[in-house]
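Q: Got a minute? One more chain.
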Amino acid sequence: MAGRLKGLEHADPLAVPLPHGTEVTTRVDRLAGEREVRRGAVGRVVAGKGDEYDVLVVGVGTLTYRREELLPRRAGQMRFASRREAAWAHLSPCIVLETVVGSHAWGLANEASDVDRKGAFVVPFGWTTGLAPAPEELVSADASSTYWEVGKLVQQALRADPNTLETLFVPGARSLDEMGDWILAEREAFVSSAIYGSFARYALSQLKKLRQSSRLAEHRVLILTWLRAEVAPNLDEIARRLAVEAHIEAPTPADAELLAKEHIKQLYRSLRDQGLLPGSDFASLVTYARAGGEAPDVARELRPKNAYNLLRLLATALSWLQTGAPTFQVGEPFRSTLMAIKQGDVSLADVIREAEELTPALEAARHATSLPAKPDVQRADRLLRRLRQESARRWFIDDGNPWCEASSTPPEAEWEQP
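A: Always. Here it is, folded:
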């Protein structure tokens, strides 16, 4: 049995929201230049504003449709979108903490930068006593705002999750309720030298993967060339060739072939996401190659934004370990370096080299830091109990100041329909 908000199985497929990435089918014919795109075309939502959505149509490109001209392609996506919308409608009044995060908080925003918000909400007590599980996350319709249920926030913060610690420590974090004040007052409980692993070691491992992906991306043209042979090689053969040509580093040749195979899968998934393949599978990639299809210019994982975020994480971890205090705002000259990376003016090889040069300092800071070795679990536990107890108190006691009034009716449990 899977509990869910009552009534979502009756969601109108013409009315449910279509989050970014939703697969859809079109309900009308549309002209793309001189080409007619017939109804029933399959695409993926890449942007939405008001009642209009930009849809990347397979084999065509991006076209704009009104909401009533689109249907979610899969029932599961429709249920997910409906639940997300319902969770936001019911529980957004329960948000107690909010922070502007991302480039605006780091001092790295430009005119194209979105305003991203993260924070925390407290589930009303009545939502915690039945079979239907309460949502652990609220996401706005445009995906620019994400709020974690306080239990999830505490668990993430104890693991030194970078996004959660940023939410708690970035200047400008604001409380929307006294419970938000309680969270901010106890945020030091989550700080420990574990940020070395969650910030620094994570960033270094991801940069290593970027370097490998960069090397592999150079061979994507070669992959497509191999697939154009009179008798196209199968996936295993292509993986064996790629492992050798790209000099993939792995413990054994078999492991190298597995990494190569995963890269080939990433290639056809990327082409599928761009609307260039009808399916996310090797057969579609073969058909694409034999029709003269070209390799994408830049792999998604190689975008400059990814590299500059990882380098920023390393610098944040180093400063925090050395000084014992978090600093998310980036100053000069490091800011100019990051902006150049973000704009694509610095090669990935140079970014990786600069990151690796920080490794000795990070190791030294890790051993010399004044930060505690572990977070204060007991203090975090007391905080969460206090929040839960306050939620219960407000549920049962009417003090003339109703809280989270829109959530007075908890969800009912119902059987999940296949």
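A: The chain has four domains: 23-72, 82-191+375-407, 195-205+302-368, 217-294.
Q: Perfect, thanks.
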